[in-house]
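User: Hello, can you help with two protein structures?

Assistant: Certainly.
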Amino acid sequence: MADNTTDIKKLTFERAIEELETIVKRLEEGKVPLEESVAIYERGEALKKRCEELLRQAEARVDKITLDASGKPTGTEPLDVK
């Protein structure tokens, strides 16, 4: 798991989801002091947004795969990343 100082924007999907799962587990256990709960909840929200962003990017890349008449991949179209 990445520590709380790791820049979320640099995390891979796998690392972000792993850290998010750890945060959820800690919060569900209910043994985290209130102040820390708020801090890790906020980080969890940022991790969730990172995962959603990476999933949207992957989906856009898949959507750009072009198929021929028989449904076989023939290439890709340029991806306009925003």
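That covers the first. Now for the second protein you mentioned:
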Amino acid sequence: MSLAEKISISSAIFFFVVGLVTGIWKYIEIARSEKATAPVYVDVLHRATLLYSFACMILFALSGLSVYSDLVNTISVLAVVAFFVFANSTYLIHGILKDTDNQFEKPYRLGPVKLPGFLIHGSMFALIAGELVGTLVLAMGALTRIWGT
């Protein structure tokens, strides 16, 4: 098994377990709430981690099929997974702090701290680029194997 595949499957397991654990957190918040709801970012974190676990399984399949070197595939997988972790980290922080129900609402906040717009939008641009480029590299490698050159 290649390093890219090992990272992908390990990440899938990690995100799935975190998804299950955050489901417990979500349930506790729902049980404590008068409206039977969890804070928005607790809910978002729970759903995102479960979805990212399955996304990592797709990365596993793509990296296993890719014609590219393990180095290229590993860098691509790491780029995607790193931004999955980054996104979930922001959800976790907002879930713990219960500081917003929309992280893109102005003024941008992280707890009591106001964040500059360039930081929020710059990190989103990097996330979009990293996830998309990493996935496209793996997809092109897999499609090249499937369909030939």
